[in-house]
C-alpha cells in the first residue's frame, strides 16, 4: 500500500485546484505539472515592487506625464498553456488587450514582465519562469534585485533573451518598453537619500 500510494503521489500532476488549496501565505505556481510554493514577498522585495509600479503606472497606465497605452498590474495570475505563474509586475499594451477583462486570471500573453528576485525564488524566476516567458513571446523582461540593488532589462529576439542593460547605483532608468520617461533606480530601495533626509528632519 505504501509503495502504491507513493507512486500515485509522484505521478500526480498539479492542477488549478492545488493552487486554490494552497495556504494563503504562499504564492502558488505550476510549471510542467509541478506545484511550486514560495513565501509571500518580504519587506524589501515588496518595497522594490511597489516602487517600480508607482514609477511606471502613472505615465504608462494612466497617461499622467507619459504616453499611456498600457495596463500595469501587480501580481496577476497568468494561465499560459498548462502553466500557472504569478509575476511581481506585468504589463499589457492596450492595443493588444483593449478592454480590461473581468476574470479570475489572465490568459493573454503579456508585453512586459518584471520579477523581483529573492533568495527563495531567484533560481525559479531566472530559470523555469524565464523560459516560459520566452516561449509565450513576452517581448520585455526585467529582473530587479533588492539585495544587489540592480535592474536587468532583457528583450526577446528570435526566441532568445538579449540583455539590454544592467543598472545599479543612483541612476535614471529609461529602458524599453518604458523609455519615454525616466525614474531613479534608488526609488526602489527603502533607504534612499530622500528618505534618509526626511527621517533626519523629523
In words, what does this structure look like?
The protein has 202 residues and is α+β, with helices and mostly antiparallel strands. Helices cover 28% and strands 33% of the residues. Strands 3-6-7-8-9-10 form a six-stranded mixed beta sheet, with helices on both faces. A two-stranded antiparallel ribbon has the order 1-2. The longest helix has 18 residues. The chain is globular, with a radius of gyration of 18 Å.
Gist of the model:
The model is unreliable at 1-10 and 195-202 (pLDDT under 50).
Q: How big is the Rg?
A: 18 Å
Find the count of extended strands (DSSP E, 2+ residues).
Answer: 12
Helix-and-strand structural type: alpha+beta
The profile of the biggest β sheet is: 6 strands, mixed
Order of SSEs: HHEEHEEEEEHEEEEEH
> How many separate helices?
5
For the biggest β-sheet, the strand order reads 3-6-7-8-9-10
Terminal Cα separation, in Å? 67 Å
Unreliable sequence segments:
1-10, 195-202
Shape: globular
What is the oligomer described by this structure?
Answer: single chain
Amino acid at each position: 500500500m505504501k509503495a502504491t500510494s507513493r507512486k500515485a503521489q509522484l505521478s500526480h500532476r498539479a492542477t488549478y485546484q492545488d493552487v486554490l488549496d494552497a495556504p494563503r501565505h504562499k504564492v502558488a505556481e505550476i510549471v510542467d505539472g509541478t506545484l511550486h510554493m514560495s513565501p509571500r514577498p518580504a519587506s524589501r522585495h515588496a518595497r522594490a515592487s511597489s516602487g517600480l509600479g508607482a514609477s511606471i503606472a502613472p505615465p504608462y497606465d494612466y497617461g499622467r506625464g507619459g504616453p499611456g497605452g498600457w495596463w500595469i498590474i501587480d501580481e496577476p495570475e497568468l494561465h499560459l498553456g498548462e502553466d500557472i505563474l504569478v509575476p511581481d509586475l506585468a504589463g499589457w499594451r492596450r492595443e493588444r488587450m483593449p478592454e480590461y477583462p473581468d476574470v479570475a486570471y489572465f490568459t493573454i500573453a503579456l508585453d512586459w514582465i518584471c520579477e523581483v528576485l529573492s533568495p527563495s525564488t531567484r533560481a525559479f524566476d531566472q530559470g523555469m519562469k524565464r523560459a516560459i516567458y520566452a516561449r509565450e513571446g513576452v517581448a520585455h523582461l526585467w529582473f530587479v534585485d533588492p539585495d544587489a540593488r540592480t535592474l536587468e532589462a532583457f528583450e526577446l529576439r528570435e526566441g532568445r533573451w538579449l540583455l539590454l542593460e544592467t543598472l545599479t547605483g543612483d541612476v535614471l532608468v529609461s529602458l524599453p518598453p518604458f523609455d519615454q520617461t525616466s525614474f531613479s533606480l534608488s526609488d526602489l530601495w527603502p533607504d534612499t537619500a530622500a528618505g534618509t533626509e526626511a527621517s533626519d528632519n523629523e
